[in-house]
Fold this protein.
Amino acid sequence: MKPVDQSIVCAKNGDCTRACIASILELELDAVPNFIRFGGLYMRVMWAFLSSLGYKYYGTGYPIGEKYPKGHKLEESDNIGGFVMASVPSSLFPNCGHSVVMDLKGVIVHDPNPNKYWQGKNVLESGELQHWTMIGRDDKLLDIV
């Protein structure tokens, strides 16, 4: 994982997800699309981008006991280098999520926001984790596209 900071800090068009994917895949920020700018096609663009690099979006998991009880557990096979993308509440914008890079123990290892508010916090222990997203190599994952 190579930490990459977001360049757009904004509730509507911020690029924290882009920065997290760049970080996990060790790419430059400009090599990753700002998915949120595609509106309703957000996920299709992300799937197509990951597929073009030989990766798949595996799915999303939620903390046990939350309103999404069908969540997937964090497992060794569901990551790249021990890292997943996670969503936490924005530290700047009310009612807005924020993407960060998390290890499998729930510790935020990279907050792409320049304020680094979430850096080093264990969001599994604090209960602030909203969900996580698994990305992995295409040969190990189910095709959900």
